[in-house]
Amino acid sequence: MDARNDMLRLLQSRKQGYSLEQPFYTDPDYFKLDMELIWHRDWLFIGHDCELPKPGSYITVQIGDYPVVLVRDQKGRINAFHNSCRHRGSRVCNTDKGTAAKLVCPYHQWT
Prior knowledge:
Blueprint: H1 3-12, H2 23-26, H3 28-37, E1 57-63, E2 66-72, E3 78-82, E4 97-99
Antiparallel strand pairs: 1-2, 1-4, 2-3
């Protein structure tokens, strides 16, 4: 049975006032379906501009399987990037928030 039909069956048989069945919390196929149908279809709020007060300020978040970094550039614009180096996949920013003159890969020192 595919995850979507399985989810529907469990939702239709759910007792009102009780929590969801275990697969909703543990099944990787349910997670993948949630990410595709809910999280990846629309804009997500991951931070407010006041959290990035000056150029070089950044915050990091995890959106499903994707690490993301928001950073304020030298012109005051806010940009979002994958928080991983495209060469080896190393995490570029390892803290939840901070300030950096440049975002640098820890593996090869790429900027």
